[in-house]
Amino acid sequence: MIDLHRHIPMSISVEKLLGFKMGNLIYKDGGYRLPELVIIAPDYIKSREWQQGVSGTVGSIISWNYALGGKKQAAKESIEALDEKKKWITFNLLEGDLLKTYKSYKTQLHVDGTGDNSTVTWTVEYERMNENVPDPDSVIELLQKIIKYVETHLNPDLVVNI
């Protein structure tokens, strides 16, 4: 297994980014807001659907359609783990285009920070099908762009190059 980490600095407080529990980024008032990513980042997230389980709980399954490198992609993933206190959530890819290239693929989102600054860290854990398969840099870049869309959505006065 290989771990790839990307830290994305943001000009917004963790409290505003996360709000109550896992807040404005993915959680608000007792429910996950991942569906809002379709509205916030429509250039990248085309659709999503809860397939199984209670929305936003460990074991629930979500299907996504998204654009990666100008190509339509699909994914079905489960929420494997989450820790609201430590502000992280882990997704495990069950089906989808990435599993044509990687034997296994997990992502973890973690948010940390103080004051008006926060950092979103995406960690991707994956296993290549063979040694010729590249790192999933394009997926990490996509995740970075989506987080920047979220940042400008929560702070409309901020100008961010996406």
**CATH architecture field:** 2-Layer Sandwich
The CATH H-level homologous superfamily: START domain
Give Rg in angstroms.
Answer: 15 Å
- Which structural class is indicated by helix and strand composition? alpha+beta
String of helices and strands: EHHEEHEEEEEEH
CATH topology term: Alpha-D-Glucose-1,6-Bisphosphate, Chain A, domain 4
What is the domain total for the residues?
Answer: 1
Mind summarizing the main beta sheet?
7 strands, antiparallel
Describe it.
The protein has helices at 14-18, 23-26, 37-40, 137-154, and strands spanning 2-10, 27-28, 31-32, 45-52, 61-68, 71-83, 88-96, 102-114, 117-128. By secondary structure, it is α+β, with helices and mostly antiparallel strands. The protein has a single domain (2-154), classed as START domain (Alpha-D-Glucose-1,6-Bisphosphate, Chain A, domain 4). The two termini are 30 Å apart. The strands form two sheets. Strands 1-9-8-7-6-5-4 form a seven-stranded antiparallel beta sheet. Strands 2-3 form a two-stranded antiparallel ribbon.
